[in-house]
UniProtKB/TrEMBL annotation:
NCBIfam families in the record: PRK14048.1
Species whose genome carries this gene: Shinella lacus
Location of the Fe/B12 periplasmic-binding domain: 44-338
Keyword annotations of the record: Signal
Keyword Signal: yes
UniProt xrefs under PANTHER family: MOLYBDATE-BINDING PROTEIN MOLA (PTHR30535:SF34), VITAMIN B12-BINDING PROTEIN (PTHR30535)
Pfam family, one: Peripla_BP_2
Presence of the UniProt keyword Transport in the record: no
Top-level taxon: Bacteria
Protein name as catalogued: ABC transporter substrate-binding protein
Length: 367
């Protein structure tokens, strides 16, 4: 009798729990480019125009590889350690057909895979080839949704995660991540509003090269993460995407803080940072990068205000970690309690299908 009562009680408790809200299909959404897209049914065979969007999918879906019909090789090529982590947990990823390299798309491969949805990144969809791909896919009955974790990321990322959750019938998880993201951005903005004094001047140097100076981020992409802290980007006069600056310009600006960006293994630079990279390797290679004659005499280097960051935060919704790292580095007097390590720990515990590890950010001066 007791067992029957326990079973009945358990049934009543489960019955009282709210069911996961189901998206109703056909579903019409507005994507990152303002295009209205109708999704006939819950997607089960998805094409990824950029492999980096697997990271976004993995924050809302417990087995994102199971819904892939094909994907691009750009994440695998640029960041093989992330790919290795996915392969360890989801070995079938090795069987997913490649449809392009993140820049080009094989229309023939895409057509042969019988996909029911394609997801493109905004920077792909803005190109002539991307526009052709969208037209081709839609003509063959494959709806295309464009997502944007790159341009104006601090304002757009949460909304794009909500969009992804709606399209994939994973609204509960996606909305939870978006709320998590927005709360952390708001914390930074509110604190800067209370401390209106200007922060330090900053150079953000993409893939430092010891033989020449320097590709500086402008106010777009990751450059916006300087401004949110109330700090000043010495390259703010450049186009939003940034550009080459001369050593003379750099010496005259003499920034208070230097931040380098790169990828694992020094793919494009002597500096190595990102998924799977040991912190000691990241710190040692960053030290070598700032020993170049273009950088060694800067105020930032002499004062040991030198930091490094994974460049591909500009392609994934994990970019909140970059915002928190910038806040902590640039204005420690008001952001000393913000710790991106704790934020990553919470992302791994609450959202990530595959935990993220490695040195995604580093300071030359160890605490």
């Amino acid at each position: 009798m007791t067992m029957r009562l326990l079973a009945l009680a358990a049934f009543l408790i489960l019955a009282a729990l709210p069911a996961r809200a189901e998206v109703q299909y056909p579903l019409t959404v507005t994507d990152a480019l303002g295009r209205e897209v109708t999704i006939p049914a819950e997607p089960k065979a998805v094409l990824l125009g950029s492999g980096f969007n697997l990271v976004a999918l993995s924050l809302v879906h417990p087995d994102p590889v199971s819904i892939l019909a094909g994907w691009a090789s750009d994440m695998k090529g640029d960041n093989p350690e992330i790919y290795a982590r996915f392969k360890d947990k989801f070995p079938k990823i090795e069987e997913v057909p490649i449809i392009g390299d993140g820049i080009t798309v094989s229309f023939e491969a895409a057509l042969s895979l019988k996909a029911d949805l394609a997801i493109l990144a905004n920077w792909q969809a803005d190109t002539e080839l991307g526009k052709q791909a969208i037209g081709y896919l839609e003509q063959t009955g494959v709806p295309v949704v464009v997502v944007d974790f790159n341009s104006d990321a601090l304002n757009n990322t949460a909304g794009n995660m909500r969009l992804l959750g709606q399209v994939m019938n994973r609204e509960e998880q996606a909305n939870a991540f978006a709320d998590f993201y927005e709360a952390r951005v708001k914390r930074i903005r509110n604190r800067v509003a209370e401390h209106k004094e200007p922060g330090p001047t900053v150079l953000m140097d993409a893939f430092p090269n010891p033989e020449k100076c320097c590709y500086a981020y402008g106010t777009g992409g990751l450059g916006a993460f300087i401004a949110i802290t109330g700090s000043r980007n010495i390259a703010e006069s450049l186009p939003a995407q940034g550009g080459i600056i001369s050593s003379e310009f750099l010496v005259a600006a003499n920034p208070d803080v230097y931040i380098a960006t790169a990828s694992p293994g020094g793919t494009y630079s002597a500096f190595s940072i990102g998924p799977g990279v040991d912190p000691n390797e990241a710190r040692e290679t960053l030290a070598r990068a700032v020993s170049s004659p273009f950088l060694t005499n800067l105020k930032a280097v002499k004062d040991e205000r030198v930091h490094g960051l994974w460049n591909f935060f500009n392609a994934v919704p994990l970019n909140i970690l970059a915002a928190e790292a910038f806040a902590h580095w640039l204005r420690p007097e008001i952001f000393g309690d913000i710790d991106p390590n704790q934020t990553m720990k919470e992302i791994n515990e609450r959202f990530a299908a595959v935990p993220f590890d490695g040195a995604y950010w580093i300071s030359l001066k160890a605490k």
